[in-house]
Design goal:
By secondary structure, this protein is an alpha/beta fold. It has one domain: Maf protein (Alpha-Beta Complex). It has 6 helices and 7 strands, in the order βαβαββααβββαα. Strands 1, 2, 3, 4, 5, 6 and 7 form a 7-stranded mixed beta sheet that branches. Helix 1 packs across helix 6. The longest helix is centred in the last third of the chain and has 31 residues. It binds inosinic acid (IMP). Inosinic acid binds next to strand 3 and helix 3.
C-alpha cells in the first residue's frame, strides 16, 4: 500500500514541486486546496505551527509548508509576507528599494507534518542574490528575480529539476520524505511480524 500525504495549500506552484520532491520516496501526494490562517509573526516556524493547528480535522498524514524570500539589507523583508507583497507590488518596488542596498537574499521554507497529535518541522534555505531584472519563465513567485549562490541564471531560467536539486523547499521536503519513508518501512515490518505471528 502506498502512503498518501495530504498537502494543504492554495499554491499550485508549490504543489507541483512537492509532488515531484516526494515521488522518489514512493509517497503519493493529494492536494487539498484550502486557505490556512497565517498569524502576525515574522517567524516562519510559528506560521507553520499555526497552519498545522488548522488542519487537525484532516485525517492521515498531513503536510503544510510556509516559505518566503528574506533580504537581509531590508531587515528580512518581505519574509513571511512574500506572497502578499508580490500580489500588491510585483517586483518593481523591490528593485527600487535595492538600488543602493546589498542584494543578498535567501529563500527559506519550513515543511510541517502532522499525524494525529504529533507534529514535525523541517527547515530549508537557499542563499543567493536578487537579479538586476526579472528573467525566465519557469517556476512561480519570485523565481524570475532570484539567482542562487554559485549560479548566473535565475530560478525561473533553469529547469524545474535543477531548482529542485538545491532549493529551500527540496531540503525541507526531502527531510520530511525521509521521515515518512522510514516510518512507513517500520509500519510494514510491524504488520508483517503480526501477520507471521498469527499464521
Ligand atoms: P506562503 O508560504 O503561502 O506564505 O507563500 C510564500 C510566498 O513566497 C510564495 O507565494 C512566493 O511568492 C514566495 N516563494 C516561496 N518559495 C518560493 C520559490 O520557490 N520560488 C519563488 N517564490 C517563492
Amino acid at each position: 500500500m502506498v502512503t498518501t500525504v495530504t498537502f494543504v495549500s492554495t499554491n499550485a506552484g508549490k504543489y507541483r514541486e512537492v509532488r515531484e520532491l516526494l515521488r522518489p520516496f514512493g509517497l503519493r501526494v493529494r492536494w487539498k486546496r484550502r486557505t490556512l490562517p497565517e498569524p502576525q509573526t515574522a517567524k516562519i516556524e510559528e506560521v507553520v505551527r499555526s497552519k498545522l493547528n488548522a488542519v487537525r480535522d484532516v485525517t492521515g498524514w498531513v503536510l503544510v509548508e510556509d516559505s518566503g524570500l528574506f533580504i537581509p539589507s531590508l531587515n528580512g523583508f518581505p519574509g513571511v509576507y512574500s506572497a502578499h507583497i508580490l500580489d500588491i507590488w510585483g517586483f518593481g518596488p523591490l528593485f527600487e528599494l535595492l538600488k543602493r542596498r546589498p542584494r543578498a537574499a535567501s529563500f527559506r521554507a519550513v515543511a510541517g507534518l502532522r499525524r494525529g497529535r504529533r507534529i514535525w518541522l523541517f527547515p530549508g534555505e537557499v542563499r543567493g542574490t536578487i537579479a538586476p531584472r526579472a528573467a525566465g519563465k519557469n517556476g512561480f513567485g519570485y523565481d524570475p528575480i532570484f539567482i542562487p549562490e554559485g549560479g548566473t541564471r535565475t530560478f525561473a531560467q533553469i529547469p524545474a529539476a535543477e531548482k529542485n536539486e538545491r532549493s529551500h523547499r527540496s531540503q525541507a521536503l526531502r527531510a520530511a520524505g525521509q521521515l515518512l519513508a522510514s516510518l512507513d518501512a517500520r509500519d510494514r515490518r510491524r504488520r508483517s511480524r503480526r501477520t507471521k505471528a498469527r499464521a
